[in-house]
Design a protein that fits this description.
By secondary structure, the protein is an all-alpha fold. Helix content is 85%, strand content 0%. It contains five helices and no strands. Helix 2 packs parallel to helix 4. The longest helix is centred in the middle third of the chain and has 32 residues. It is elongated. The N and C termini lie far apart (42 Å).
Length: 111
């Protein structure tokens, strides 16, 4: 059906692309939080993409996620070791998020 047609179109584009296009495609696919990793592995495995474009694109696309999760874990560790009241901190965070969402809403209305 539709999924097979999309896969065939993707295969044709990926296989007909040069190294740089393949590299960018893999990088963007790996950066996307929408496409599950296992699905992208399967789809990329069905294409005759250059292995180096696959390796380098995967590395480039996953590095920002790795840094994000390492930073998140380090921050959570520091928070736990600080002995602060987590309930109070979460309440403050929720208040700040609420303030910023109102600011973004005002910007959207103004523009």
């Amino acid at each position: 059906g539709k999924a097979m047609e999309r896969l065939q179109r993707f295969q044709a584009r990926a296989e007909g692309a040069g190294f740089a296009q393949q590299l960018v495609s893999v990088t963007v696919l790996r950066l996307s939080p929408v496409v599950p990793f296992s699905v992208s592995n399967y789809v990329l495995g069905l294409t005759e993409i250059d292995p180096w474009a696959f390796y380098l694109g995967t590395w480039a696309g996953l590095t920002p996620w790795m840094l994000f999760y390492c930073g998140l874990g380090a921050g959570a560790r520091e928070l736990m070791l600080s002995g602060e009241d987590l309930g109070l901190l979460m309440a403050q965070l929720a208040g700040e998020v609420g303030e910023h969402s109102r600011d973004f809403g005002a910007l959207a209305v103004a523009s």
